[in-house]
Amino acid sequence: MSDLTFTEPDVLTDHTDVICSTSIERIVTERNAALTQIEALILQLDDISTLTRSIGGKTALDWAMKQDFRCGCWLMEKTETAMKAITRNLDRGIWRDLMKQSGMLSLMDAAAREQWYNSLEKDDIPAVSEANILSTFEQLHQSKGDVFERGVINVFKRLSWDYKSNSPCKFGKKIIVEGLVSYTRWGFSFNWGWRRDQLVDLERMLMLLDGKPIPDNREDIARRLSDHISQQKTSDSYEDALFKIKYFQKGSAHITFLRPDLTDKLNDIIAKHYPGMLPSKQ
User: Fold this and answer.
1) Which domain of life is it from (predicted)?
2) In angstroms, rounded to a whole number, what is the distance separating the alpha carbons of residues 100 and 113?
3) Domains: count for the chain
4) Ramachandran angles phi, psi of 206, nearest 5°
């Protein structure tokens, strides 16, 4: 079995580490300073509202908001209620940015990323503090191999076994997927849905196994294939360094792997999680 090797993300190990040249201490210090100033601003607005209301000018909610676009503003709520909501919103944005900079998102499949983002929408997200940041990213660092392997398994399990090319034991020379494209009298078009996520996940895993940088969503396999289909309406195939993709009017596509060495690494992961499925190598 070949060793699982991929480019590790720059995740945190102790308080002296940096995420993209941004120190944890600075993030926490400036986050706390911002919250202190926001609370002072809320109290000041409340004092001003008391003054203007006493002379018949109503409150900040009346004279500070555009009348045609009047909507709620946490700065004009009671301090305790407002600070809870503002702190949660601020911390949510900071956690998203930290996760993006850490490199961990590149190891996650679409389902894992969605689970992460959904967890940030809850009311009980952990406060941004040095202890919480270190604890969170140390745990992620320790589990990065499992996160990556779980993504491989998830992509594999979502293949349809109705096709002989899709082996229930391994990734073969090619796989067949349904619903990747649509066909009308104007030609082919690319379907943007969970199949798109599956294809992007597959490219990401192969790139990591190859030690190559992962393209962002403006240059990933889904964007390149979509552009190819849009620009070449009469074409029914696409090829790059990793895949040869032939698509059909019924919507299915044959995806041939062009790097058998990387396919072997995917299969090593499957064999690790499902021992006995693959025959031993001679």
Assistant:
1) Bacteria
2) 11
3) 2
4) -65, -40
Instruction: Identify the residue whose tokens are 């690319």.
Output: 190
Could you tell me if 202 and 222 lie in one domain? Answer: yes
pLDDT in tens, the chain (282 residues): 344 444 444 444 343 343 544 588 889 999 999 999 999 999 999 999 999 999 988 888 888 877 666 567 888 888 999 999 999 999 999 999 888 887 777 778 888 888 888 999 988 899 999 899 888 888 887 777 888 888 788 877 777 666 666 666 778 888 888 889 999 888 899 998 888 888 888 898 898 888 888 777 778 899 999 999 999 878 899 999 999 999 999 999 999 999 999 999 988 888 887 776 555 454
* Domain finish residue from 106, 122, 142: 142
- CB neighbours (10 Å) of residue 76? 17
Residues 62 and 163 in one domain: no
> What is d(CA 161, CA 175) in angstroms, rounded to the nearest whole number?
10
- The first and second tokens of residue 109, run together, are 């499949």
Please list, in sequence order, all residues whose beta carbon lies within 8 angstroms of the beta carbon of residue 25, skipping any fewer than 6 positions away: 15, 130
Residue 50's domain comprises 18-142
Which residues have a Cβ under 8 Å from the Cβ of 56 and sit 6 or more positions away? none
Residue 24 and residue 132 in one domain: yes
Residue 135 belongs to some domain of the structure = yes
Q: pTM of this prediction?
A: 0.68
